[in-house]
Structures are given as structure tokens and as C-alpha cells.
Design brief:
Helices cover about 50% and strands about 10% of the residues. The protein is of the alpha+beta class and about 600 residues long.
């Protein structure tokens, strides 16, 4: 019988979002009950994706190559769900199965490519069947694809079969709740020690913590080929010492969350399932990511300390919650044009990306707000700085979103819930004025640098301004708005960011924003990029800081970092509103053979531009 003549393993019901859940999520929160609701809705989605994938396989001749007919998978999955529905749901909700489903559908539609034959990706279905049979106590005999002599069994482990071709197959027998790969292969199951290594077997290891109301266990995934968000990866086993660092920092991060925000810690225990390591992250930051295909999963480089780890978990859990809501409701309709400034990103973002980022930073700001009174005295200045900076960035993003007509009625209601969090944060009097000033400097620095790199003034305006400067005339106060012309190759330093943190007595600390730096400059001994003399003068409040940037621009008149520093050092409001103009006008002057000091150009513009 063909799959399209069968029912799916279970019917996916329609879901209505309760008003209380919507309001809870809009405020950046979402306790255990709200996350349970999202998991139920995501399970329905997984069932629909599974049905879609199997129907597409059945309609594609030769899609499974040497593997069994797709009907056999339907039989196994249906029987497993009927025998052990909760175990089946937990397996299907494994984040890496979500990534595999998405990747398989994209390969079938030819919008993604793999490193092997099509059947090596689609045939992972039989490994899912094998684990479902193990969990349900069903007998099964099937065939699974091999990738470089390995076969991954989701949420269980990786079988290694030596001396096999890069793309091959292996027989799998499930009996009595135990799984055997090939007649002479390893035998594993729930009653065995499958979470460690054995000859021919690498088990998934775990991270554990105690949170209010329940223990929390996550898979530390370094072996599943579908642990990344794009193409399948080979296994990269963590060493014993590396794993110990992950476990220690994860446990302390959850301890911290359990004290400062017990509701979020409990919600994570309900919603999170896996962490996969991102390797080769810059020394001064944390790289992390998540996907709407993988509810409950995240990727991250190892955070340098428990606080950074907690921020990373909050950050990606915000994306997880919003991603699930977006599968139920449409919050925006947009062309996808990358045009918006996001205060935590170095590149222009589409409306959808800005909404996701603003929601993540709503959670990050809330974390710092709650953590302030729990921070050790030595770390309190940095905690205040992080809260003040994220508060400013989140407010700016919400204001940008509010002005965009692409939000739907649901999206505008959601944004009102986000904006309702701002007044309490801005009325908080726990932040020292000098730290607030440093946060404002950091926020203005990034916004200015973004405009210098990605905004292009109208060419006619630039030519007219250059002629007026050369003639000693006044600035035409009405200059047309600039347009977004992304320069994604432009480097970013982050050196002033590092200086501010060092001034707050946390030398060499990682950037606890849990976001990547935009470039890869050479770091200093403490992990941060080397600051220029102008950077040091600016952060120290030296009124002559512009001299250092002028010297840099004499050597490289296109240096975006130096132009940013110069505008900050001159501190003229018109320049801060249009910082892209001085570099553009100076470039035009050079092209016409007119020598000019960058400071003179900038101050001339500042004197005549309308704010």
C-alpha cells in the first residue's frame, strides 16, 4: 500500500494560541506551561513534516536507493507510536530529527545539496525507525545508510563499522529493546551503557543540572551529522577535559538562572534538549545559533564562564520560543530586503531578522536586570553596563519595528507586549551614571559604525557638498536621506568595546552579548583587538581623541573604524545623525584633487546640517 493511502502516525490537530500564552510570550517570558504548549504544537508540525517527507520519497523513483521500501517505515513508526506514544513523541521532537526532516525535504526539492547520494540523507529514516522500535520494545529488521563507515541513531549514539566504503549500508536488528548493527556489531539499548564509548560505539553524553521542580538533562551532541544548521557534519568527539568544562559551566549557569530567574530555568528544563558545539569561535566572543527546524536544540561555542553561558541559553531559548510561535501566527509580511539597523549585528537585517533579534535581546536585557542583585561585587560594574547597553539597544530596535508597516495585526499586538517591558527598565535607579554613559558610548559607537559602512548618501548631494566645501560656502541644510548599500566585507574592530570592559575591571572577559564580532582583527593578549591611540583617548574622555583618528585617516582615508572614531570624538549631534556623510564628502574631494583635513570636513558638515 502506498503511503498516501495511509493515515500519518497521528493526526495533527488545529491549535489555537491561548491569550495568556500570547501575552506571556510577547513580554519576553514563557514559563513551563507555555513551553509545554509550544512543544505540543511543534510535535504536530513534526508529524506533518514527516508525512510530507514520506509522501515525497514515495513520489520520487529511486529516492531510497538500496534501502527498504518506504512502506516499511510507515509500518514501524505507526506501530511504535501506538505502543509507546510518549516515547515516540519525545523521539520525533529530538532537535536533530527536525534538522534532518528539513534537510531531507530541501534535498528533494533541490534547494539543498548533500555530500553524498540522496538516499544517504533520506535513508536516515530507518535509523529513526530503529530507535523508535528500541523505545517501544518492538522487533525490527531493517537497513540503514552508512556515512564514512558510521550510522547515527538519533538520541542514542553512533555505530562505527571499520573497513566500509564511504557510502554503504548496514543491517540493523532490534529485539527485546536492544539494537544490534550488523551480526558482529555492537549491541545497545536502554538497559545498556549506551551513553559512553565502547568498541564500535560512541554514545551521546549528557549535561545535567538541577532546576526548580525537576532535574534537567541535555544531550551534548558532538556526533550526529544533523547537529548543524546546514550540511551534515562528521563526528568531532569532545575530549574528556573539554566535556568536563562544558558540564561544569552548564551546571553553574543553571544554578545562576535558578536563583535569578527560576521560571525561565524551569521553562528551559521543559523545552531544551540538545547542545552542539561550535568550534573555532573568536577568543573574545561566543558564537551561538538555533533553528526553527530544531525546537529545543542550540549550537554554541563553549562560553568562557557561567554568566556568559546563562546569557547564551537565554538568547537561543528566546529564538526557540519565537520560532515556534511563528509556526502558528504570522507576525510580519515583508520582502526580506536587508535594510534595518539591528544594534547587535554588524550587517543590515530584514524585518524578520530584526524582530527575532529584538526578541532575543528582550530576554537578554531581562536576564541582566534580574541578575544585577545576584552579581558578585567585582562583577557588578560589568553587569550594570550590560543591562544599560542591552536596554538601550532593545529600545532602539522596538522603535524601529514600531515604524515598519510590514507588521501584521498580530505582530503589532506582539510588539506592544514587548514595548511594555521598557518603562520598568528605564525607571531602574541601580545603574551608576558613569556606567550609563559608557553604555551610551558603546551603543552610539556601533550605530555610527553601521551607518558609516552601510549607508550611501545620494551622489548628487555628495558632489554638491564637496563643491560647497571647496568654495568655502555653507552647507545646504537639507540633504536627502541616505540609502542602504551593504558593505559586508568591511571589517569591524570591537577594540573600543574591549577597552570599556577593561575599564570596568574585567580584562580579557568574553563579550557576554553571546553574539559574534563582525570581523576577525588580531586580538591583544587579553583576547580583545588591539586599540589605537585614538580609541584609548576616546574611551578615557580625552578631548584631543580626534587627533589620533586624523592620523589614521592620513594613512588610510577610507578606514571606516577611524571615521567612526572621529565622529564620536567630535561628538556633534548633526554628525551622529549622519555619520556617513564626512567619509563620502572627503572621498569626493580627493577624487577632484582637493586636499582636506578629515576633521575640517566633519566640523564643516556639523555646523550646517539640520538635526
Amino acid at each position: 500500500m502506498q503511503p498516501d493511502a495511509r493515515s500519518a502516525p497521528a493526526r495533527a490537530d488545529h491549535h489555537l494560541v491561548p491569550a495568556a500564552c500570547f501575552s506571556d510570550l510577547a513580554a519576553g517570558r514563557g514559563g513551563p506551561e507555555t513551553v509545554r504548549f509550544l512543544r505540543v504544537t511543534e510535535y504536530s508540525r513534526r508529524l506533518l513534516l514527516l508525512r510530507t517527507l514520506l509522501d515525497a520519497i514515495a513520489a520520487t523513483p529511486g529516492a531510497l536507493g538500496p534501502l527498504p521500501p518506504v512502506d516499511t517505515a510507515w509500518d514501524t513508526l505507526t506501530a511504535a507510536q501506538q505502543r509507546a506514544p510518549e516515547d515516540f513523541a519525545e523521539l520525533l521532537m529530538h532537535p536533530q530529527i527536525g534538522i534532518w526532516l528539513g534537510h531531507g525535504l530541501r534535498r528533494l526539492s533541490r534547494t539543498a545539496w548533500g555530500d553524498g547520494p540522496l538516499w544517504t540523507d533520506l535513508g536516515h529514516l530507518y535509523a529513526v525507525c530503529a530507535v523508535a522500535a528500541v523505545r517501544a520494545g518492538l522487533p525490527l529488521r531493517t537497513t540503514v545508510p552508512l556515512r564514512d563507515g558510521t550510522a547515527m541513531f538519533p538520541a542514542l549514539g553512533l555505530a562505527r563499522l571499520p573497513d566500509r566504503p564511504r557510502w554503504g549500508t548496514a543491517e540493523v536488528v532490534v529485539e527485546g529493546g536492544r539494537l544490534r548493527v550488523d551480526p558482529q556489531g555492537v549491541c545497545v539499548g536502554p538497559s545498556g551503557d549506551h551513553d559512553g564509548d565502547a568498541p564500535g560505539w560512541q554514545g551521546l553524553r549528557t549535561l545535567r543540572a538541577d532546576v526548580p521542580g525537576r532535574p534537567m538533562t541535555l544531550w551534548m551532541d558532538d556526533i550526529d551529522p544533523y547537529r548543524d544548521l546546514s550540511e551534515p557534519l562528521p563526528p568531532q568527539r569532545l575530549g574528556k577535559d573539554e566535556l568536563a568544562r562544558w558540564r561544569e559551566r552548564f551546571g553553574r549557569a543553571l544554578d545562576l538562572l535558578a536563583v535569578s530567574d527560576p521560571s525561565t530555568a524551569a521553562a528551559m528544563a521543559v523545552g531544551l534538549r540538545t547542545i552542539a558545539e561550535v568550534r573555532q569561535a573568536p577568543a573574545w566572543t561566543v558564537l551561538s545559533a538555533s533553528s526553527g527546524d530544531a525546537f529545543g536544540g542550540l549550537l554554541s561555542s563553549l562560553p568562557p564562564d557561567p554568566v556568559s553561558f546563562a546569557v547564551t541559553l537565554v538568547h537561543e531559548f528566546q529564538h526557540t520560543k519565537l520560532g515556534a510561535l511563528l509556526h502558528l501566527l504570522t507576525l510580519e509580511r515583508d520582502s526580506g530586503t536587508e535594510r534595518h539597523y539591528a544594534p547587535w549585528r554588524n550587517d543590515p537585517r530584514p524585518l524578520s531578522g530584526l524582530l527575532q533579534g529584538a526578541y532575543a535581546f528582550l530576554g537578554i536585557t531581562d536576564f541582566w536586570w534580574r541578575y544585577l542583585d545576584h552579581a558578585p561585587p567585582a562583577e557588578r560594574p560589568l553587569a550594570e553596563f550590560e543591562f544599560a547597553l542591552r536596554r538601550r539597544q532593545t529600545q532602539e530596535a522596538i522603535h524601529t519595528l514600531r515604524a515598519d508597516p510590514g507588521l501584521t495585526a498580530h505582530g503589532r499586538r506582539f510588539l506592544r507586549g514587548m514595548a511594555a517591558r521598557l518603562p520598568a527598565w528605564w525607571s531602574d535607579r541601580r545603574i551608576r551614571p558613569d556606567i550609563t554613559a559608557l553604555a551610551e558610548l558603546a551603543a552610539t559607537d556601533h550605530r555610527t559604525g553601521w551607518r558609516v559602512r552601510h549607508l550611501a548618501p545620494a551622489p548628487d548631494d555628495v558632489r554638491a557638498l564637496a563643491r560647497a566645501f571647496a568654495a568655502g560656502a555653507a552647507v545646504d541644510a537639507h540633504v536627502a536621506a541616505s540609502t542602504v548599500v551593504p558593505d559586508l566585507a568591511a571589517p569591524w574592530s570591537q577594540a573600543r568595546n574591549g577597552l570599556i570592559r577593561q575599564r570596568l575591571a574585567v580584562p580579557g572577559a568574553g563579550d557576554r552579548s553571546a553574539l559574534s564580532a563582525g570581523g576577525r582583527p588580531v586580538p591583544d593578549a587579553g583576547g580583545w583587538p588591539v586599540p589605537s591611540a585614538g580609541d584609548r583617548a576616546l574611551v578615557a574622555g580625552d578631548p584631543d581623541a580626534s587627533d589620533g583618528y586624523a592620523r589614521l585617516l592620513a594613512g588610510d582615508p577610507e578606514d571606516a573604524e577611524a571615521w567612526t572614531g572621529l565622529v564620536l570624538a567630535l561628538a556633534a549631534r548633526p554628525l551622529l545623525h549622519r555619520p556617513e556623510l564626512p567619509r563620502a564628502v572627503h572621498r569626493e574631494l580627493r577624487m577632484t584633487g582637493t586636499a582636506a583635513d578629515p576633521r575640517d570636513v566633519a566640523l564643516w558638515l556639523a555646523a550646517g546640517l539640520a538635526v
